[in-house]
Specification:
There is one protein chain. This protein is mainly alpha-helical and 126 residues long. It has a domain at 2-64. The chain has helices at residues 2-23, 52-61, 65-77, 85-90, 92-124; strands at residues 35-38, 42-45, 48-51. A 3-stranded antiparallel beta sheet has the order 1-2-3.
Length: 126
């Protein structure tokens, strides 16, 4: 069994390295350094964080580099919204619904902040 686990780790690393070369346009002769948080789950490369599942989805769904990085940027801008790479690429309607949900959350935060601000002015403005 240990032999199979070793093979799995080697193949996982090979697939990940190949993906990094392709999606980050790195030459074959350049050395790649990436770190696993947990092998086969989450890794970091060049200030980016991806799951191995995202790597596999890129290959399975033929996701373009542009779509991948648009999704990544979208996730960074919408922290409270959870939308997988495949949902982002395959379901524009779901993305729209999630964006609307995020905007409603932001609106509620603004209203709450305004209320707290007005109360603080009343308390300390006298």
């Amino acid at each position: 069994m240990e032999k199979h686990i070793k093979q799995w780790k080697e193949l996982t690393n090979k697939i990940t390295e190949s993906w990094i070369r392709e999606y980050f346009e790195i030459e074959k002769d350049e050395t790649i350094y990436f770190d696993w948080v947990d092998i086969g789950r989450v890794f970091s490369f060049a200030d980016y964080w991806f799951s191995f599942y995202d790597v596999l989805e890129c290959y399975r769904l033929y996701i373009s580099k542009k779509d991948l990085f648009n999704w990544y940027d979208w996730c960074m801008d919408n922290h409270s919204v959870k939308l997988s790479l495949s949902q982002y690429v395959l379901s524009p309607q779901e993305r729209l619904e999630q964006e609307e949900k995020h905007l409603l959350e932001l609106e509620q935060r603004v209203k709450s902040a305004e209320k707290e601000f007005k109360e603080a002015i009343k308390r300390y403005g006298k």
